[in-house]
Amino acid sequence: MGFFNFSGFKKAPSIDMDKLTQGVADFFALDTADVSGWISVNKGDVIVAFPFACESKWSGLREALNALGITADNVQFTTEIEAKKALKPRVPGIKNIIAVASGKGGVGKSATSVNLAYALMQEGAKVGILDADIYGPSVPVMLGNPDSHLESDDGKHMFPVNVEGVYANSIGYLVPSENATVWRGPMASRAFQQLLNETRWGELDYLIVDMPPGTGDIQLTLSQAMPVTGAIVVTTPQNLALADAVKGIAMFEKVDVPVLGLIENMSFYQCGQCGHQEHIFDNGGGESLANKYDTQLLGALPLDTQIRQHADAGKPLLVREKDAAISVEYRRIARRLSLNLAMLGDKDNDNRIPIVEKH
Ligand SMILES: Nc1ncnc2c1ncn2[C@@H]1O[C@H](COP(=O)(O)OP(=O)(O)OP(=O)(O)O)[C@@H](O)[C@H]1O
């Protein structure tokens, strides 16, 4: 026995770090250079800190690593989402603001925003949703609490509502919707700023902002009024909707907000009986639009009764039907979105959207 007793110290990890890095990179179809910064050793523990929300993939990754001979039981996985660059100072506590926009009304932007918020949460992120659709707030209905009122501890700040783990605020909780519909642009914009800045959001990885439909002055003003880190455009496959989605992409480009991707909603009809998929409007419009404008089609969601029923009944689909195929698809879209955001560089000219996830 020597002078020191080392028995209280952990042994250095017997893990081949190069192999681990390669294994993680391969699993997510990324380069080793992309993932090497995620891996560290702390007091004998090997830690992989994912900068994007992907918790549902962790068990599959462990298996893949085990198959490579890496005893992944000795590797800890955590989620550490970084705050990305925005053109305005960050709202304290909120790491990233993601604006969800659409060129046209009624394409399912609010339903998509709500479902993505839960999908990101289920993948391990802390998530809030802000209903910026001042003129037609639908988030309270979709969360099943249209009659809720907000609490305040000082008569100035508001506590968001917490529905099954997602924090939310909406003008719908503050004034009857008929009052807001007559507001002019500046008033709507002031109300929005108040909802954003005077809500006690706590610590959030992502705040999803459900924008008002369209690409006019009010949408432009709101985009500039908040420190957005990235945007998503929701569209349906009809030509007219796609043409309006282009305006959405152009709007964000104008205000220097990176577009993280497109989502094609009501993309096809899937027969509840036989599973046959029918592309009622055209097929492939979202994909070719994404290619043309150098962004990514994050996913295509069907026209589906489950989506409508849960949204309209205020029962979050992803919580109530966690394992349904459609919930799995929302989580896949959420991981892509989150990865795209994590891969944004800090500089304007360093925005690389990665290729498609393999799993
Ligand atoms: N994929 C879908 N399948 C079936 N119904 C859907 C789907 N997406 C949305 N819906 C339904 O379509 C209606 C409109 O959706 P939603 O309110 O999300 O649209 P929106 O684009 O936010 O509209 P607006 O911007 O005009 O407020 C809702 O009843 C919603 O439940």
UniProtKB/TrEMBL annotation:
PROSITE patterns: MRP (PS01215). ATP binds at residues 103-110. Keywords: ATP-binding, Hydrolase, Iron, Iron-sulfur, Metal-binding, Nucleotide-binding. Belongs to the Mrp/NBP35 ATP-binding proteins family. Homodimer. Binds and transfers iron-sulfur (Fe-S) clusters to target apoproteins. Can hydrolyze ATP. This is Iron-sulfur cluster carrier protein. It comes from Fluctibacter corallii. The lineage of its organism: Bacteria, Pseudomonadati, Pseudomonadota, Gammaproteobacteria, Alteromonadales.
